[in-house]
Amino acid sequence: MRPSTILVVDDVPRNRRVLSDRLRAEGHDVFEAVDGDEALRRARAVRPDLILLDILLPGIDGYEVLRRAHEDEDLKHTPIVVVSAVDDLGSVARCLELGAEDYLTKPIEPTVLRARVHGCLEKKRLRDQERACLAEIAEANATLEQRVAERTARLSEALDEVERLKERVEAENACLRQEIEASRTSEEMIGQSTAFRRVLTTAERVAPTDATVLILGETGTGKELLARAIHEMSGRHARDLITVNCGSLPPSLIESELFGHERGAFTGAVTRRIGRFELADGGTVFLDEIGDLPFELQAKLLRVLQEGTFERLGGTTTITVDTRVIAATNRELERHVAEGTFREDLYYRLNVIPLRCPPLRERRDDIPLLVHHLVTKHCKRLGRTASDVPLETMRRLQAHRWPGNIRELENTIERAVILSSDGTLEIQESAWPHAEEPGDSHARTLEDKQREYIIEVLEQTGWRIRGAHGAAVILGVKPTTLEARMKRLGVVRREPHDGR
After folding, report:
1. Mean pLDDT of 217-232
2. How much is the mean pLDDT over the chain?
């Protein structure tokens, strides 16, 4: 155990010597100072275990030394015992108030000095141990808090990852429910005509690449099935094909649908939502009816195509995705570019590999194959025996122009399967789609044909859009899609005349 270090401060040499000799005789290391300034300097240099301080000193007095030592980080824990000839209660009270450990009045008996010094040193030793223990506890607490913080951060990251996975699974399930009703590509891509095989050959060549594909064609020609075929033949087939119908979503929601949103991004956004592009990371996103995409969102889509980055609605974090884009439209995008309603740079970025789905009237040789497939499909679904198709019925089916293409053909076959009763496919005269007048086909635009056909179906259903027997079911589209198309084409119910 090392000897204690004591600093004796007194301006009278004899007093200093007497105290120092007695302390050294007790085995202590003793240093001396003759005034207040020297006392503070030596105390900072030596770091004594105890200071014996006189009050009446030249320069700064003992009171000032007490005050400065108490405010000094290096000295504030050093006990100071005042040794003074001043013997009044005011001086004692002032010294104790300034932080003195004890107050001794000269002359001091050796036994009293020994006892007081020993007591002060023992108290300092216990206080040092206490501070050391507290420091160890504080360090242990800091280490524990750091470990807890690190563990909490890891758990938080794990919970965030679980939440992200949960959001992704929920989004994938939502997409899966939409996709369950869609038929598999291998079952539906039916045809042997030259026009149809030419499209499939090009699709087979482009599928293994990541090139953007733009599928053109009239409504009901199988653009989505062709997109599925390209995806299934690509290296991304292990991931989902995520479909977005740009024409069936309100402009206010389509940005959230494509790119997702953060909580609080808009009224009703109570949770964060993953968008279709993020969900399709590593896979393919199919943008159906791309011509209906609002102009203000086209720049954001162009950025995804060029850089693979975007931000969620209401968010600031840039998200990077590896998503292949296949788009489809029944519109003449070049005309919309010329009119300024579709961005020219986006059009050229989409039109890397254009594919045109031929209308059914250009692949009449495929109609018998399609009819037999559809008859088998709907008979199986309805629990019916497969119906025979009379030659005359097949001839009429091949002769019709089918403005609604394969979708219209399927709806016609489904109705016929339901209404047939003797194992022979019968298409009642009232169920036949109305044929076009000769010479009209080239004079009218595609939108004119669509408008007329939609009005025709609406009149058959009493202008009922929704429900099992509504126009949307007959046309093979969602009610929201039909309503959007009616608005775009200007289809409005005509009031009946009362004859007056």
Report:
1. 92
2. 85
The Cα–Cα gap between 40 and 55 comes to: 14
Backbone angles phi, psi at 192, to 5 degrees: -130, 5
The C-alpha atoms of residue 23 and residue 1 are separated, in whole angstroms, by 17
> Which pLDDT band, with edges at 50, 70 and 90, does 492 fall under?
confident
133/137 Cα distance (integer angstroms): 6
Tell whether the model's pLDDT for residue 387 goes beyond 90: no
pLDDT grade, residue 390 (50/70/90)?
confident
- In angstroms, rounded to a whole number, what is the distance separating the alpha carbons of residues 497 and 482? 26
Q: Would you state the structure tokens that stand for residue 202, as one six-digit string?
A: 């090009």
Tell whether the model's pLDDT for residue 439 goes beyond 80: no
pLDDT in the model for residue 489: 80
pLDDT over 90 percentage in the chain: 44
SS (H, E, C) the chain: CCCCEEEEECCCHHHHHHHHHHHHHCCCEEEEECCHHHHHHHHHHHCCCEEEECCCCCCCCHHHHHHHHHHCCCCCCCCEEEEECCCCHHHHHHHHHCCCCEEEECCCCHHHHHHHHHHHHHHHHHHHHHHHHHHHHHHHHHHHHHHHHHHHHHHHHHHHHHHHHHHHHHHHHHHHHHHHCCCCHHHHCCCCCHHHHHHHHHHHHHCCCCCCEEEECCCCCCHHHHHHHHHHCCCCCCCCEEEEECCCCCHHHHHHHHHCECCCCCCCCCCCECCHHHHCCCCEEEEECHHHCCHHHHHHHHHHHHHCEEECECCCCEEECCCEEEEEECCCHHHHHHHCCCCHHHHHHHCCEEEECCCHHHCHHHHHHHHHHHHHHHHHHHCCCCCECCHHHHHHHHHCCCCCHHHHHHHHHHHHHHHCCCCECCCCHHHCCCCCCCCCCCCCCHHHHHHHHHHHHHHHCCCCCCCCCCHHHHHCCCHHHHHHHHHHHCCCCCCCCCCC
Q: What percentage of the chain exceeds 70 in pLDDT?
A: 90
Q: Which two tokens stand for residue 365?
A: 């040789």
Q: Facing residues of 82 across strands? A: 53, 103
**What φ, ψ does residue 354 adopt, rounded to 5°?**
-85, 135
Q: In terms of pLDDT, which residue wins out, 434 or 171?
A: 171
Is the Cα torsion angle 306, 308, 310, 316 positive or negative in sign?
negative
Q: Work out the average pLDDT over 92-100.
A: 92
pLDDT tens, position by position, 265-284? 888 888 888 899 999 999 99
